[in-house]
Amino acid sequence: MAEIIKKVKISKDNLPTINSITGAYSVRYRIISEDKNRTSAWSSVYSVDPNYTYVSGKINISSSSGSVRVAWDPVTIKIGANTIRQAKDYDIWVKWSKSDGIGDWKYADRVATNTATLVVPDTFFINGVDQSDTPNRITVEVYLKGDPITREYDSLLVYEPAIHTV
Question: Which of 9, 121, 122, 162 has its CA 20 to 30 A from that of 38?
Answer without folding.
Answer: 9
